[in-house]
């Protein structure tokens, strides 16, 4: 089975084909126009690379072209993430109110993750979101859908209310994680919700996040990721609404 495409972000139509006796047989029309696989490939190839302003005077022509290419493919990846946001706005009334960044805080390296925060419009000023991230943790790049609160030490009471998601048992396909993905690999926690509540109370853990990890393999298609991500978002929504009700 072959997925026809020009490069990471441009397709020859939206079809999956099988090659038989050197002839292309169209067997499945693609349903999504979002290139989830292209975003995974982008991070695999470019994350951690150094970056400079392409128009800096001290650069050679070769360096300028290199950084212009990095900027171009990074923006293409961001555009695919924005398509996901547009889809979620139509399906779930969840909207993105933040800039999706591809450079780290120093603006000199490509981040190891892309982060899309989505909220109900009436809750856009609350730092709680249903987040979609694509990131490299340990050795593999994956998509994650999570209930997220933006890290901010000035909102300790909000963090306390955020952890009310532990009132509701997680589903079997969900995981709890801890750690700052900007600085380190996050850890998957094996404890149950009651044990985690106790560890938060005694400050053994600062933040426990609820996630759905979207596993894929070399045969996974864009339609597969599209379906799995939409399923995960629908599963996280009740936790989001529960915590939002406690905050408001």
Reported for the largest beta sheet, the result is: 6 strands, antiparallel
Number of helical segments with 4 or more residues: 5
Overall pLDDT:
88
Shape: globular
SSE topology string: EEEHHEEEHEEHEH
Radius of gyration: 20 Å
Question: What distance separates the N and C termini?
Answer: 50 Å
Our estimate of the beta-strand percent is: 25-35%
Task: Report helical residue fraction.
Answer: 25-40%
Which residues sit in consecutive blocks of at least 5 with pLDDT less than 50?
A: 1-8, 10-20, 24-28
Structural class per helix/strand content? alpha+beta
The largest sheet has its strands arranged as 4-5-6-9-7-8
Number of strands: 9
Can you put this structure into words, describing what you see?
- By secondary structure, the chain is α+β, with helices and mostly antiparallel strands.
- Helices cover 34% and strands 26% of the residues.
- The strands form two sheets. The protein has a six-stranded antiparallel β-sheet. Strands 1-2-3 form a three-stranded antiparallel β-sheet, with no helix packed on it.
- A hairpin with a 2-residue loop joins strand 2 and strand 3.
- Helix 1 (36-46) packs antiparallel against helix 2 (61-92).
- The longest helix is centred in the first third of the chain and has 32 residues, at 61-92.
- The radius of gyration is 20 Å and the shape is globular.
């Amino acid at each position: 089975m072959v997925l026809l495409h020009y490069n990471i972000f441009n397709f020859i139509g939206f079809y999956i084909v099988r090659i038989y006796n050197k002839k292309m047989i169209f067997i499945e029309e693609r349903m999504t126009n979002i290139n989830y696989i292209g975003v995974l490939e982008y991070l695999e190839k470019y994350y951690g690379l150094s970056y400079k302003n392409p128009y800096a005077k001290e650069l050679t022509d070769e360096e300028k072209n290199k950084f212009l290419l990095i900027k171009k493919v990074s923006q293409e990846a961001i555009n695919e993430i924005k398509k996901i946001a547009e889809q979620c706005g139509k399906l779930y009334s969840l909207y993105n109110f933040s800039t999706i960044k591809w450079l780290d805080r120093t603006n000199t390296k490509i981040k190891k993750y892309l982060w899309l925060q989505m909220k109900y419009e009436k809750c856009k000023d609350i730092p709680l979101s249903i987040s979609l991230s694509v990131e490299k943790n340990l050795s593999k790049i994956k998509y994650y859908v999570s209930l997220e609160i933006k890290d901010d030490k000035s909102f300790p009471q909000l963090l306390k209310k955020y952890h009310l998601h532990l009132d509701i048992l997680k589903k079997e396909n969900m995981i709890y994680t801890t750690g700052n993905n900007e600085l380190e690999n996050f850890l998957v926690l094996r404890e149950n919700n009651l044990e985690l509540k106790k560890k938060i109370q005694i400050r053994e853990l600062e933040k426990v996040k609820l996630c759905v990890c979207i596993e894929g393999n070399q045969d996974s298609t864009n339609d597969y990721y599209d379906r799995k991500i939409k399923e995960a978002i629908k599963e996280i929504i009740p936790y989001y609404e529960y915590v939002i009700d406690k905050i408001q």
